[in-house]
Amino acid sequence: VANGQWGGLAGAEARHPDSGVGIEALPPSAKDSQPNDGERKHRPMLRNANIDYSHGTFFVTIQAAFNKTIFGAIVGAKSVLNELGEAVAASLRSLGERYPGTEVIEFVVMPNHVHVILRIARRRDNRKHQLGYVIGRFKGWISKVYRDLVAAGRAVDVGSTPWQRDYWDKL
Fold this sequence. Notes:
Blueprint: E1 5-6, E2 9-10, H1 37-41, E3 56-63, E4 72-75, E5 78-81, H2 83-93, H3 95-98, E6 102-109, E7 113-120, H4 130-151, E8 168-170
Antiparallel strand pairs: 1-2, 3-7, 3-8, 4-5, 6-7
Helix pairs in contact: 2-4
């Protein structure tokens, strides 16, 4: 799937209608603040307790930190990725190689978020929350790439991570 394409739509038209629901855009002054353990315990759960996240097909949206356009820009009707956005796309293309039983069916990297449709096969060695494990490892790897790019002056600094907390899923 070519980046910028989603269901036959390109660029800004490619946004999923629910991609902004429940996403908090934090002010720049809060850019490096992390919740303490007390705050973390009281955050609402985004995962449905009745869903088996060890396998299945999932539509996932991952938002950039502070809703910043750090992965590229919309030029005309296309999403044009920068170096960090290209690293996100490359990591998604190779996700199945790193996590057996995981298949990225389709994805699109937008300037401030990522949409992924992925399938996790039923396997004995899957974790209870395999989806969260795979997404967490993906976000962690991209966070390392991001910090390296920021240190080299090749990415915009939005804090310690390029991601908002958690991710949003649809089944």
